[in-house]
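Section 3.1: Structural characterization of target chains.
Under the original work plan, the team committed to producing a structural model for every single-chain target entering the pipeline before any wet-lab resources were allocated. The record below documents one such target. The sequence was received from the expression subgroup and is listed exactly as submitted; it comprises 535 residues.
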Amino acid sequence: MSEIFVIEEIAVGLLLIATFVGILARRLRMPYTVGLVLVGAALAILNQELHIELDSEIILGIFVPPLIFEAAFHLPIPDLRRNIVAILILAIAGVLLTTLLVGGIVSYGTGMPIGYAIIFGSIIAATDPIAVIALFKSLGVPKRLQVLLEGESLLNDGTAIVIFNIAIVAAITGHFNLVEGFNDFIVSAGFGLGVGFVLGILASIMIARIDDHLIETAITFVLAYGAFIVAESLHVSGVLAVVAAGLANGNIGPRGMSPTTRIVVFNFWEFMSFITNSFVFLLIGLITDISLIVNNWQAIVWGIFAALVSRLLVIYGLLQPFKNISMRWKHVIYWGGLRGAISLALVISLSSKLDSEISKQLMAMVFGLVLFTLLIQGTSMNWVIKKLKIITRREDRTEYDISRARAVSTRASYEHLEKIYKSGMISKHVWEILIGVLDPYTKNLTTEVRAILKKHPEVKAEELDTAWREFLSFQRNQITELLTNNIINNDVYSDLVNQIDYALDLREIKWDDVRHLNELFLTAHIENEQQIPDA
């Protein structure tokens, strides 16, 4: 019982520290996670008797699932799909290239055997941009840039773990079979994603049939950990299973939730993310062995150099064909490649697999690199974003977003009350009083939104563009369903989808003449016909 109380005291103490750090970080306008690492390191230095043992399974099994699930849960699949090619290139080819480049540079610079250097490369190949994503949201960085960085992080975690396990076996046995390694990767990643999607959809179906916000929230909690446990028990990627489960449940589940449930679920996972991040980054500081880092400073410098060079080649090389990703965005993606929980979990697990000396050196190098990315890259990201003029939030857009959000939420609340009234839960007398107040208030909000759009034509153009693309995306999905149900054949499907994709690729659409839409599809049809060679 005493051990339970000790654990409870430590957990409450860490959470209290995290709360104060959060308040201080907000006042100092610095990344909250960086503050946690600094405070954790300070506590470890001031209290030399403080000794915390952290198992890799605790990080991977307890801390990682809620972090990944929360990020995937809030990532819209349409946004992910629009950027999936670039994200997959970074998450698969980028991780493999990083592993090899870092391994080669570290082996050359430190004299470390290439097998162990490759292990180091696989450990630090997974990015963890949590420290900068929150900053992105607060500054108003473009949504697509956030999706690129967060999507890469979600998928490359699983890829890096699979490659790490292959590298460990190769280093221990001295034998590596490329075909076997590729097959292991496909099986682990593919089945992991499959398990996650199936569980995520099943959880969404359950949520749609239940109308209890506490039970529905519990289902998402069980899903986050359950996907990881089921996948790991099947010896496939648990991390990718959680990613898939979060994506499936986050994009399907909320449709079957009541407004109350959505609020509770979103708030719950926001709190879970805060709690987990707090513990992870505080523990990074607490378990950092300063003497070990000092004794291996040269190897750490080579590790940092290798990571920066490999990231440079991956981002500017692999993303070079993507002309719609600007050079300024590539700078941000490059500098936003921080390392965190996954890298720590993997390197801590080495103590039971490799010789103690080499595992200690690798641990020092990984911890040194993690601290560098958090303390240098994390703290300077604000300056980089402002220097590159990435921020797109404008006063007119903010004014419109506030007015529109107020109008939409008020209208939804009005309809909710009307539904309650019709079900007999509100008396007719009370309802008549309410509509006497709400009707003019709702109309005033609508008029206010219309006035802002008239005052700021550029905001109106953005809104039209967003609505138009949403219309096209939905239309594309409907055509896919027609093909699935054998109502149209593949030729008709291909022709129609190509027209829609052409319309989606247009940068600017004229809205002054409705006939332009017909011309737009006609042009798409003609261009597609011209691209088909004669038999």
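The CA atoms of residues 293 and 507 lie 51 Å apart.
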